[in-house]
C-alpha cells in the first residue's frame, strides 16, 4: 500500500541560547507550536518565546546537489537560519498558538490566555493592545489569505465567557460583536458557522444569526471528573467538520464528520488512542496520540492508511496545520525527473562511458536541469509536528514513488491504471501540475521499456506515446538489445522495426514544438529521429514504406549529411536528387541527374531524366548552372538542350554569338535550330545569321542529294507535278502539301528544302550570287531555288522559262510576275509601287513565253488565261503584235472587250478630271473678284515697290 506521508525533521536541537545560563537547569525548553509562510518559519516554545527562522537558500541548494550526487533517497528540507527571538509577555508561559496573517503583515500570538499582535515578517510588536481571557483564536477557513472590503481581517476569539468577533488591520484592533457562549476552549469556522466546544460538548454556532445546534459530547459514557479527553475540531472538505470523542479513559477515540446542519455525513474514524491533536490535509486526517504515534486516516474511505512513529526522533507535543506550509524537495524524485545528457559508446567496444563534460556550457545546462528538477520535485508540507527541541513535518509522498515501486515489481498494468487515475485528477491551475505531468511521463516511459524487455512491442508503443519518450532512448535500447540467438533476433527484428518506425513518425510530428526542444537541442534530437526513420524505411520493400520514404525525403530531414551518404550507399540516387530538391541545392540536383542520365549512376526509379533536367533549368535562376548543363544537354539531347536557349528569359541572358559558338561545337542540329529561332522568330536583322542559315540549309540539302532515293523522289515529284491538270497550285505550295515520307532521309530533305525556299523568298538580305553558285551544283533537282535566285538577280527571262517550260508551274509563273520576280508563291504578295513597272515587263515576258510553249493546247489555254486574268498588266499594242495572226478574234474577245472598257473608263475619268479642274478655276476667279470688290484696288509705283 502506498504510504501517503513521510516524516521529516525541519529544525533540530533548538535552545534558548540567550540567557540560557540564567534558567533552571532542571527545566527543559520544548516547542509548542509552529507556523510558516514563504521562506519564514515561526516556532513557539514553553519559555514564552517565538523564534523566527528564514530559509538559507544557498545552503538548501547545496543540500539538494549533495543529495542528488549521493543518490539520496530522502527528502531534502530547507536549511533554516535563525533571524530573531521574540519574548512574548513578561512571564515564561508557553506559546499556545500562532496565527499568521501575511495579507496584512500581522501575526497573532496566544500566550498565557492573552492575544498579542506582531508584525510580519520581522515579528516585532505591532501594538500595545492585548486581548485577555482567551482560550483559542481562529479565522474563517474560507477567508484564509483574504481581507475584508476595508482591508482588515476578521478573527473569531474564544474568550472565557463569550465568542468575540474581532477585526484586525495594520492600524488597529477592533471588536465587531460578541456572541454569548461560555467556556469555549476549541473551535474552527467555515463561513458564518463555527464549530466550538467547551469542556463537555460540541456545538454549531451561527455567529451571524446567533443560533446554536448542539452536537455530541466529548466524553462518552459516565462522566469522569478531570477527564483527559480534550475537544478537537477541524474543518474537512468544503462543508464538513471533524470532531473527536471517546471513552473516559482515553484508550481509544472516534472521529465524526458533521455537516453545517449538524448531521453526520460519513462513517466514523477509529483511533487506537484518543488523540492529543489532529490536523487535516484533505483527503487525509493526521491524529497525534501519546507516545508520538501519528495515525493517518483516509477521509473518503474512513480507513487507516499509515502509522508514523516519531518517538525515536523526539517527543511530539502537537500537530499544527499551517495555512501555507514549507517547501520540501524530494531528492529521489528529482533524480528520476532530472534530464541528463545521454553518453554512450558502441556495444562492441570495451571502453567505459566517458565522464560528464566539465565545460562551462555543460555545467550551465546541468545546473539548469537541476533547478528544474528541484522545482518540480518540491512539495508543500502543511502538517507540522512540534515537541521537545525539534520541529518536524509530514511530507506528502509523490505518486511517482508508489508507481516506481509497482513498476519495480513488474506490476505494469496496475501502475498504468494508477497513473491514469492520477491524470484524471489533474485540474487546470493545480500548482503541482508540472510535477504530476513529469511523474506520468516517467511512469509511461519506464513501463514502455519494461514492455520492450518482454518484446510486447504494441504495448510499448502505446505507453511510449503517452510518455513522450525521448526517441534516442529507444534507439539506444534497440541497439543494445537482448543477448539472444540470431534466429530469435531475426523473428523480432521486423516487429521491433515497425514499432520504432511508428514511434519515430509519431514523434516527428512534434517538430517545432517548444516542449520537445528548440535550437541545437531540438536539431540534435530530430537529427536522430530522421536518421533512424530513414534507415528503417530504406530497408523496407513495401509500397507503403516507399510512399512514406518519399514523403520524408520531400519534407526535408535534419540528418542531411548522413542521409546523403546512406542514399548513395543504397544506390537510391533518385531519392538523393529529391533530397537535394528539398534543400534547394540546385548544383547538387543537376549533378545527380546528370550522372543518372549519362549512366554513371543507375536507378530505375529515375524516369524521363532529360525532360526533368530541361524543365528544371527553365525554372533555374543560376546562369552559370544554366549554361553548364544547358550545353551539356545540347550535346546529348539537342532538341531538349536547344529549347533552353530559345526560352525568352534565358535567351536574353546570354550573348547570341556566345550561344552560337557553343552550339556549333556541341551539335550541328542544335546550331541550325537556334539559327532558325533567331531568323524566323526573333527576326534578327543581321545578314550574317541569314547567310549562315541559308548555307546550312544548302549544305544539308546537297548532302541529302547524294542519296539515290532522295534524287529519285525529287524526279518523281517533279514529273507528277508536271502532269497535274492546269488547276494546280504553285510548285512551292505543292511541296508543302505532300504527305510526309516514311523514308527519314526524304522526310528530312523535304522539310529542309521548304525552310530554304521560304527563307530565299523572304525580305532578308543575303549573298545571292554565292548561294546561286552552290545551288547550280544540283540545279536539275533544285529548280525552285534556282528560279528564286534568278529573280533576285533580275534574270527574269530564265526564271520564267524554268517555271513555264521545265516545271509547267503556271500558277507560280504568274505569282512571280505579279510580285516583281521576288517570289513564286501565290500566298506571298509584294505590293510595293516600284514593282508595278517590273510587273508589266514580266507579264509581257510571260506572254511571249507562253506563246512559245511546245504544246498548242498549253499555248492556247495559258495565253487566254494570262490575257483574261492579267490583261490590265499588258500593253494592247504589244499583245496585238505578238499574238499569231492565225488566231481568231474570238480568242481575244475577252481581252479586247476588257481593254476597250478600260480605255473608255480611262477616257471618262480624264474628262471628269478636266471638268473638276475647270470648276476649281472658276471658283477661284469668283473668290478673287469678291475680294477686290471688298478691299478695293491701289496703285503700285516704283516707290511703293522699293518700300
From TrEMBL:
GO biological process: autophagy; endosomal vesicle fusion; protein transport
Keyword Cytoplasm included in the entry's annotation: yes
Localization per Swiss-Prot or TrEMBL: Cytoplasm
Keywords: Cytoplasm, Protein transport, Receptor, Transport
Top-level taxon of the source organism: Eukaryota
Domain CNH: 28-323
InterPro entries: CNH_dom, Vam6/VPS39/TRAP1, VPS39/TGF_beta_rcpt-assoc_1
This protein's GO CC annotations: cytoplasm; membrane
Keyword Transport: yes
Span of the signal peptide: none
Name by which UniProt lists this protein: Transforming growth factor-beta receptor-associated protein 1
Lineage: Eukaryota, Fungi, Dikarya, Ascomycota, Taphrinomycotina
